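SAMPLE LOG
Freezer: B-3
Tube label: C17
Construct: single chain, 182 aa
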Amino acid sequence: MQIERQRPQQAEVYFALGEAWRDAGMPPKAVSAYEEALRREPDSGWMLKRLADALLASGDLAEALSAVRRATRLWPDDSRIQYSLGALTLASGDKARGILALKRSVELDPYLPYAHQSLGRALLDSGDAGTAEEEFRSELRVQPDLSDARVNLATALSREGNFTQAAYYFETALALNPENAN
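STRUCTURE (predicted):
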């Protein structure tokens, strides 16, 4: 390949190559490109986050978690990196730390609907339907047309025993997306 012969020094070239491999559905090649970019620019939290995404897509949760932890140390106030840390930490089985990272993500950027959704689901799985309900309501405020958010909210309401409201949100979710019936 041309790039391998020329060995450019700019991290951006390798980062772009990683993005191209990622978009082509070739995570292992994306991992190699992101690693090469990071050799040239080791303090890029965003490149580390992309490396973590590619590692996860390659099936390496432990290395993905390691990369996103490094990214978090570099950029602790990046809501998307905190979200990734939370999601990967949950996937590794550490619910308490995963929930803390997701809370940090929504604290940093309350307009990330998927962060509210992930946090709400983690809270619901932990038995905290009341706080999960708050997160699903926040998700709906950010993106009112999400039928999944309505299903999640309905589930939380149902677990709290609020069946009338739960039925309302299930019905509105089906009106928005009839495929939710399956």
